[in-house]
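Technical annex B. To support the medicinal chemistry partners, we prepared a structural model of the target in complex with inosinic acid, based solely on the information shown next.
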Amino acid sequence: MLADIVVDLQYGDCGKGKITHHLCKSGDYTHVLRYNGGCNAGHTIYHEGRKFVTHHIPAGVFFGIKSIIGSGCVVNPVQFFAEIEELEAAGIKTQGLVFIANNAHVITADHLAEDGGDTKIGTTKQGNGPAYRDKYARTGLQAKDIPSFQPYLIDLYEEFHNTNASPRILCEGAQGFGLDIDHGDYPYVTSSHCTTAGALLNAIPPAWIRDVWGVGKIYETYVGQKNFEPDEDIFKTIRDIGEEYGATTGRPRQCNWMDLNLVTRALNINGVNKVVFNKVDVLRETDTWRLISDGKVLEFDSENDIKSFLTNTLAGDHSDSDREFFFSDNKNGI
Ligand code: IMP
Ligand code: MG
């Protein structure tokens, strides 16, 4: 039995889908589990030269691995079936591979209508907040209450604990640390748990954890109502080169330099032992290597300088296993 967990170190959109897709290629996993969020997430995946954006269905489906929408998630039935159709139409087999935890919660038309207007924090308007509110108010609907979901339902306890098989589970998070309901910049957060702890809420015992992959970007982006991007032209350039527009809503993502303090907190609270920084090629094109530490902008002379600074500074002095670092360009493997 083992579980590897993929978490986002910043505000989402750091490339978790790409890392999950890459890890699936190892053939090491029996299950891929989406453990939080709803269709607010957009996971962009390049599979065999084609681009896919999934919202609910985990990346395991591209490799014929059982793909589960976990109990920490909220599911919009209309979006779920649209995704099934889209994948099937593209020749990706979903039958007998895609499952929904029977105790996942449902995003209803009322949730969508409520979240659809202009919200104070700038949500994705996918009904996420109202669905989680009703879950905790004990007035929500669970997946098992929805007739059309019946063929897809799975009991996580039976699947992971009460069979003879030893599951090897890749847990794929949605959103990111800065959007986490507890550790994020409240109230500019999503309504679910985007950390390693959120994965454990899906019938995963802590002792099963092997690797925690922390995925970040070499700069930072955020989508929502708070003022995030400094008024400097370089960030517009970064947005264009990095194609920083929301996968779900198409909104321009606000850009800034990586906040080292945020990433440090995310690494430590999530217990990350494998760190990936994506989109290094975007800063390479601007030939500007900066990050923010304790509110001050630090400038580096070269790509190598910033990489060795990050590797040394973020190595961590209180983790019992060594942190490994990977740097990756846009659209390439790690
Ligand atoms: P909600 O999750 O739709 O309620 O939105 C809450 C906040 O999280 C807003 O600032 C959204 O833009 C942000 N958010 C939600 N999902 C994602 C995502 O997948 N990527 C980036 N930001 C997200
Ligand atoms: Mg995304």
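Notes passed to the chemistry partners:
The radius of gyration is 19 Å.
The chain has a mean pLDDT of 95.
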